[in-house]
Amino acid sequence: MNKNLKFKILLIVTFIIIYSIFYYIIDNDKNSRVESILNKQVDNLKIQQSIILNYFQNDAKIIKDEISNNEKIIDILTKAQHSSKKQREILRSKLFKKLTPLYTKIKRRGILQLHFVSPDNMTFLRMHKPNKYDDDLTDIRYSYSLVNREKKVVSGFEQGKSAHAYRYVFPIFNTKDNSHIASAEVSLNTEFIQNKLFKLNKIHTHFIVN
Questions:
Q1: Using an 8 Å Cβ cutoff, are 51 and 59 in contact?
Q2: Backbone phi, then psi, for 186, in 5-degree steps?
Q3: pLDDT of residue 20
Q4: Rounded distance, CA 169 to CA 154, Å?
Q5: All residues at 6 or more sequence positions from 78 whose CB lies less than 8 Å from its CB, including other chains
Q6: For residue 162, which of 113, 102, 95 has the smallest C-alpha distance?
Q7: What's the pTM value of the predicted model, to 2 decimals?
């Protein structure tokens, strides 16, 4: 092999090595930049989701206070504990009518469910599905079982019968004798959060549940 050919081979090998090094550096820098941008986007989404959930928690607490301090609502829920099926139908209709203005208002803020359950975990009234009631949620919704058992507020992400949501579940008492008469749920639809984040960021987000 003559010197000229050796030089050419050496030149080619050197070029390949230098090109590979530069390609690695550029590709690694590109990947780092992409990862940094994605991480910033994720952090931004987390912050915005946290703000949305904070507003929801505040809304839920206001709704809780409004329901707990309403004598007519408390009276209906108290009477429903020891009423016949026919009487419960009448009381359910009264509660639905009483809460319709409030429910119409909170739906605009993404709150889909305003749901009342008796102390034995049986549904009394779903404002979003008023014709569906008297189903036992004991083995389906652990939040209701916990609230009815321990008489304390429970909030967080929970799967329901057909959909998941951020839920705020609280006990309701008759202050006259401090008896536990029901539990209620205020829940924020995850689809509302997705739509809100899209409007803010133009990024499609989804809740993936295992």
A1: no
A2: -115, 125
A3: 73
A4: 5
A5: 174, 179, 181
A6: 113
A7: 0.74
